[in-house]
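#structure-requests
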Amino acid sequence: MRRLFAAGVLTCWMALTASAQGLVWSLPADGSWVLFQGEYTQTDIGGRAENETNKKDVETTWNRELTIKSVGVEQAEYEGETTTCRWIEFVLIDAKPDQDGRPVPGPAGKVIYKVLVPEKAVLGKSHDERGVFNEYLPIVRGVRKVGNLAETPLDGGVLQFYPALTLLMPYREYQSAGNENPDSPLADSAEKLTAELSIESRGVRLKAQEPGDAPVLQIPYSTRVENKATLWRTDSVPFGLAGWDVTQSRSRKGTNAPRSDFVETSRVVSKMVARDSGTDAQSELP
């Protein structure tokens, strides 16, 4: 699966209410787990970036499962003091369904993150008491396992959910649209939140001038990623979300061209709903 990445100038159009740290809005009792199920659809829009009309859009859909689990409590050093921490495990499966409709991962279709999170770092709001934006989830240490590969340690002291685990981005604020039924068996009502984020970056494209020629650098281009999300927030589901829908669009134009020349080249839609939960979580990693 193509992973989307962009870095550059961030622009937001939002207001009101609280933000949180991606997939973790609150910490349930240790041993709690929640299973999200849904789809992940990517559409590559043929030929639009090159002003061609003879290419067809290519759409690919995966079944997606994401399980979040609290799998242990430990005292650890964080910001110069010993504090209570949780082992939180994220298990993501992207795959085509089997005959029973369940996704069966291929060699690299299952991703596991296991991280030790200071309880006091889970704030459920956009900024800490110093006014610092909570863009990532702080961790003491952690590991990642992809498919059948060996575990690798996580560096940097934070866990970034986007884009490895979800299309939800680090939105600075959310708009509240009141309460509604989130279409989840785990919650009759949840607060509906919306958020948007746009990222622009620059790059260059490689292309052969003639058949058989080596790739050469072309004129620089600008990329814009527009991400729009709807989330359903509730305390009745472990970790605080009953589901989310995200649509992410990627567009491209020449670096010196006006913004009106941005042309959409791909689109990704992710829809996830909390389907099951429990209190008997077990880790899949040592």
